[in-house]
Specification:
alpha+beta, Rossmann fold, Yeast translation eEF2 (G' domain), 6 domains, 8-stranded antiparallel sheet, 7-stranded mixed sheet, 34 helices, about 35% helix, Ribsml_uS5_D2-typ_fold_subgr, nucleotide-binding, Elongation factor-like 1, EFG_III/V
């Protein structure tokens, strides 16, 4: 490879380098806002010959996959090592902008210390701009802003300099308000407070920008005068910061550059008489122009007008070239295309790479300063119990030392090696370098077995990593304190080779110091998605990454030729390792199901399977859309339903010893949302774990268990209050107070969550009344099996001492009036009751989909056994299964008798379309049951932005249909928004007199939407579907007339 055979003039990733001379940054933006084009110019200028400047902006160097070039969008994160003018090493990571590849954005952000947020000056802030800012905030990255495509304001919109200034000012204000909202949000503020006070470290903060974490809450994050905003045109390769114009004009005006700079943004004006920068009130001119308009934008507008009108051979253009001392070849000025001449002049007058690289070096932190801030997010402190600490004090002390080394970005020889792998990516063996650092031939093991080599996309956070070194691979579940109990979560591996990433190219290096990004060969069989590498077992794994969305689009795949099934399974395993976001599962029916983020992501996965990993022809099913099940009742209707006495569903075990009565309630929507968002944290709190995470982190919650439980408890109460506030005008205050009191009482009785112990459904223990604890039925004595409010205790709704006292009181009363054996058996059946609840909530009665937003009050009664059975253990095993079945059937029956509803996932759809294509756009949205929220016209253009909710079930083929009906003029972006209940009753049958009169016996009722969706899911799962096979059973009639 040409890239791999570059000269080794400067060993950028060499061990022992000063990490303070390193910058790691990623590019984040909405799709098509110019990320890869910007990266092209940075590579061409600072990449040591990787890309010729003539090709910058058009080659798309970082998009080296064929599919990326064909679709003209970035699909994966790619890194390249650059060097600034003053010798700083900059690791630049280009990331995708499409929501389908949000996992790649998370991978890039985890390895970076700062982020370049790009915004199109014409389109402004879009939905993925919000996501980019949120990603930067969650990962504690220092953001900088690049306002791209400034040239479109001149050539396309034909704005005046004053109008363009107002537009730019509004965009900067919008971005600042979004980031300020992230910082000022109550939960984010708590997270910031915790992470802004990391433990004492040896790392110095002298080089940390003064506004990196100590910004005043009222101060804007992005300020052009601070130098963290660049105005650019990436396609033509020019860009600037106000400092450049301040230096240029200060000499002419005769003032200090710093004084002139203060006027180059905001309502600041230059008094021509005194030469001072003043406010608008002090200026005496009739129509004053802000200094940014007068000295910056007006100059740009004049340059564009002059070159595009007169061409490069005009005297005025040549005079400008001489005045600015620009070295432009004569043949470029004589070019007949004025756009080419303009690009030559502008790129040499205001080089884009110089402005961006200077901003990265001056306004973003080095790894030493950044890791001191980010360590609380990357390696949150673990609370170790006194028993564990006493059992292995050396391990705890060593783990704390490792954490301090990560915090200090320790690059000394004695420092422990800590590396984080954010993703695995596949590289064909034929693309790997053949020679090593010293020219020796590299032996790539496994090249004959597979054509793909899996590389680790990683960053060294402490120590010096060397090729051939042995390290421990720690999974996210690893706990160094537990020792032998978690051996399956740690494995020792010998690394093969280390590479410096140069886009598609790879350059071998012998060692890599802390603060550098690196590709590692030799971990393909040991890491599935991400992992932590350490030279010692006494190391806590890094916290998991946060993703913007979850895989929603599922398809079943199978080979066209059944004999290729083995190759397909092998290819699926390779794809699962290569793509950080794809999910591969095998259903109970034996289907191989692939879950992707969206249509484009799915198409890429199928293409990779067919052409790279499995190399077989595939048959892909229609998308398997997920639904959920709930019951009727929202808003004011929920309050009214809570007043009426709810019916109980009752089921009895076959042996008659246990009767289960179940009542189901609908949770407030806001409370359901809180439970869904906090699933990972709930799992930790319920199981009593520390702040270690097994999956996606909820960024709004702190890393400390006690504070997390308190905050989550408050969020649940606030959710109930918010729902009540929304309906306060429809329901009188007395009913609302009674409803609130009822639900706060329910929150004190949470026995379990479901499904999988963390879902948005509650199992409530029965209300404790001494009169109900012992009953008699058919001459048999029985007791109420009551569970302990375990979840409520963990969340702090009730104190453990109170719960124990209540439990002991009930047990004492039961034991006094009932046999001791019956009481012991009731305690043993508690797990069976919880298991039945978990099974029921995992597969509802409509179409075996998970239940959503329900609370079950279960009252199980256990009666004495009058038989004299010899084998009580066998009887108990059978009986426990009967109890599980009875609880499951009672829960499902309770849902069916309370007006069940189907719940579908909804996308937030953001469309951009010209005015003449609005009608076709509305037609497409109408056909797919979309609900339009708002339509806004982009100022100064004929483009409209449409926001709508689109059901996930209707999203398949949506983009293609939209493009075809609008002749490619409209584009859409889909982001998972929320779950929404379908108002139709899927099992409607006429019951009342009015319904019978209108519909008869129901046989002629056309299936409603909910029933159609329910039947499609049942048919796919092989469940019974009630439908007519023969619609007309009469004998076939012909047109023949028999006489």
């Amino acid at each position: 490879m040409a890239a791999a055979e570059r000269s080794d003039e400067a060993a950028p990733a060499a061990a022992g380098g000063d990490p303070r001379r390193i910058r790691n940054t990623c590019i984040l933006a909405h799709v098509d806002h110019g990320k890869t084009t910007l990266a092209d110019h940075l590579v061409a200028s600072c990449g040591d010959g990787l890309l010729h400047p003539k090709l910058a902006g058009r080659l798309r160097f970082m998009d080296y996959l064929d599919e990326e070039q064909r679709r003209a969008i970035t699909m994966k994160s790619a890194a390249v090592a650059l060097r600034s003018r003053d010798g700083h090493r900059v690791s630049l990571i280009d990331s995708p902008g499409h929501i389908d590849f949000c996992s790649e954005v998370s991978s890039a952000a985890r390895l970076s210390d700062s982020a370049l947020i790009l915004v199109d000056a014409v389109e402004g802030v879009h939905i993925q701009t919000h996501a980019a800012l949120r990603q930067a905030f969650v990962e504690r990255l220092r953001p900088c802003l690049v306002l791209n495509k400034i040239d479109r304001l001149i050539t396309e919109l034909s704005l005046t300099p004053a109008e363009a200034y107002m537009r730019l000012q509004r965009i900067v204000s919008d971005v600042n308000s979004i980031y300020s909202a992230l910082r000022s949000h109550s939960y984010f503020s708590i997270l910031s407070a915790l992470e802004d006070n990391p433990s004492t470290s040896n790392s110095s903060t002298e080089d940390l920008p003064e506004d990196f974490e100590d910004d005043d809450d009222n101060e804007d994050t992005f300020q052009p005068l601070k130098g963290n905003v660049v105005f650019a045109c990436a396609l033509d390769g020019w860009g600037f910061r106000p400092q450049q114009f301040a230096d240029l004009y200060a000499k002419k005006v005769g003032v200090k550059s710093s004084a002139f700079l203060r006027g180059l943004w905001g309502p600041r004006y230059l008094d021509k008489k005194t030469g001072k920068v003043v406010g608008k009130k002090a200026i005496k001119s009739a129509d004053p122009q802000p200094m940014f308009v007068e000295f910056v934008l007006s100059a740009l507008w004049k340059m564009y007008e002059l070159v595009l009108k007169d061409g490069g051979e005009s005297k005025r253009v040549k005079k400008l070239v001489e005045n600015f001392q620009l070295k432009i070849p004569e043949r470029e000025l004589k070019n007949k295309d004025p756009k080419v001449v303009l690009q030559s002049v502008m790129s040499r007058w205001l080089p884009l790479a110089d402005a961006v690289m200077d901003m990265v070096v001056e306004c973003t932190p080095d790894p030493v300063a950044a890791q001191g801030i980010r360590v609380a997010r990357l390696m949150p402190k673990r609370e170790v119990t006194p028993e564990d600490a006493a059992g292995c004090p050396e391990v705890v002390a060593e783990a704390e030392r490792v954490r301090k080394c990560v915090e200090a970005c320790d690059v000394t020889v004695d420092a422990p090696v800590v590396v984080y792998v954010s993703k695995m990516f596949a590289v064909p063996y034929k693309m790997l370098p053949l020679k090593g650092v010293n020219g020796e031939l590299l032996n790539h093991h496994g090249a004959s077995e597979s054509e793909e080599c899996f590389m680790a996309f990683a960053r060294v956070f402490s120590g010096i990593l060397r090729a051939g070194q042995k390290v421990f691979v720690l999974s996210p579940l690893y706990d160094p304190v537990k020792g032998d109990e978690v051996q399956k979560h740690v494995q020792e591996v010998e690394l093969q080779y280390l590479y410096e990433m140069l886009g598609q190219g790879l350059k071998p290096v012998a060692s890599v110091g802390a603060g550098n990004v690196v590709a590692i060969q030799g971990l393909g069989q040991h890491i599935l998605k991400s992992a932590t590498l350490s030279s010692t077992k006494s190391c806590w794994p890094f916290s998991s990454m946060m993703f913007q969305a979850s895989p929603m689009l599922k398809v079943a795949i199978e080979p066209s030729n059944p004999t290729d099934l083995g190759a397909l399974i092998k290819g699926l395993k390779l794809l699962n390792r290569a793509d950080p976001f794809v999910e591969y599962t095998v259903t109970q029916r034996g289907e191989h199901v692939l879950a992707a983020a969206g249509e484009i992501h799915l198409e890429r996965c199928i293409k990779d399977l067919e052409e790279r990993f499995a190399k077989v022809k595939l048959v892909v099913s229609d998308p398997l859309v997920s639904f959920k099940e709930t019951i009727e009742g929202e808003g004011a209707a929920l309050v009214e339903r809570s007043k009426s006495a709810q019916e109980f569903a009752e089921r009895t075990t076959p042996n008659g010893r246990c009767t289960v009565r179940v009542q189901v309630l609908r949770l407030p929507n806001a409370l359901t949302k809180v439970l869904e968002e906090s699933e990972q944290l709930l799992g930790e709190i319920v199981e009593g774990k520390t702040a270690k995470r097994e999956g996606v982190l909820d960024p709004r919650l702190s890393q400390d268990d006690g504070d997390s439980a308190a905050m989550l408890r408050q969020r649940m109460i606030d959710a109930i209050d918010s729902d009540l506030e929304a309906i306060s005008k429809q329901v009188d205050k007395e009913k609302l107070d009674r409803y609130r009191k009822t639900w706060l009482g329910y929150l004190e009785r949470i026995w379990s969550l479901g499904p999988w112990q963390v879902g948005p459904n509650l199992l409530l223990s029965p209300p404790m009344k001494s009169s109900d604890s012992v009953i008699t039925q058919d001459g048999r004595q029985g007791i109420l099996v009551s569970g302990r409010s375990h979840v409520s205790e963990r969340l702090g709704f009730v104190r453990e001492s109170d719960a124990k006292d209540s439990s002991n009181l009930d047990n004492g009363e039961s034991a006094a009036d009932a046999p001791e054996s019956l009481h012991l058996e009731s305690m043993a059946l508690r797990n069976s009751i919880v298991s039945g609840f978990q099974i029921a909530t995992n597969a509802g009665p409509l179409c075996d989909e998970p239940m959503w937003g329900l609370a079950f009050v279960i009252e199980p009664y256990l009666f004495a056994d009058g038989s004299d059975a010899a084998n009580h253990s066998d009887q108990y095993n059978i009986f426990s299964g009967q109890v599980i079945t009875a609880v499951k059937e009672a829960c499902r029956a309770a849902v069916l008798q309370n007006h069940p509803r189907l719940v579908e996932a909804m996308y937030m759809c953001e469309l951009t379309t010209p005015s003449e294509q609005l009608n076709p756009t509305y037609a497409v949205l109408g056909k797919r049951r979309a609900r339009i929220l708002d339509v806004e016209m982009q100022e100064g253009t004929s483009l409209f932005t449409v926001h709508a909710y689109l059901p996930v079930a209707e999203s398949v083929g949506f983009s293609n249909q939209l493009r075809s009906l609008t002749a490619g003029a409209a584009s859409a972006l889909l982001v998972l928004s929320h779950w929404e209940a379908i108002p139709d009753d899927p099992i409607f049958t006429p019951k009342t007199q009015e319904e019978l009169e209108e519909h008869g016996d129901g046989s002629s009722i056309v299936p409603n939407l909910a029933k159609k969706l329910m039947n499609s899911v049942r048919r796919r799962k092989g469940l019974h579907v009630e439908e007519k096979v023969v619609e007309h059973g009469t004998k076939q009639r012909t047109l023949a007339k028999k006489v």
